[in-house]
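Supplementary Methods, section 5.1.

A reviewer requested that the exact input to the structure prediction be made available. We therefore reproduce it here, unchanged from the version used in the analyses.
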Amino acid sequence: MHLDDVLTELVEHSGERLLRVAYQLTHDAAAAQDLVQEALLRVYQSVRNRGLAPEDWYAYLRRAVINEYVRTRRLRSSTEIVTDVVPERPAPGCLEDRAADQAELWAALGALSERQRAVLVLRYYEGLADHEIGALLGCRPATVRSLASRGLAVMRPLVAAVSAEEEQT
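The structure derived from this sequence is encoded token-by-token as follows.
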């Protein structure tokens, strides 16, 4: 089977899953699509140049998506504007509460380092074991546990602070 056909079939079967992983990392649909597209291009070029097809294509592409995410976060453009103005909060008890809770969770995830965020997404969204995450990120399972622990420790006060603000209003 030709490389183009293999990748086309893989994208048809696993493309949505890769997009969901990318979305969990970026929390932006357009950025997730760009991330998967860049990862696919890099994999295509690499496999084409080396002529070596991986055994497990999905795992290979998932790793490429994670690597691309970490790479782009390191090279984040200087066009992003950081502001100290917090948007208005929805009224308690309204239908927007659930969306607001998710936004708070994403904000807390955004406060993490790239590796901590990748570990938490792979652990809780993809359901991978520590040794599998370690293999994907190129570190030991103990490092994965440490990154997860530190990431959760960073997120807890952020989520608690938001919950305390809601109770006061």
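The chain has seven helices and no strands. These observations are discussed further in the main text.
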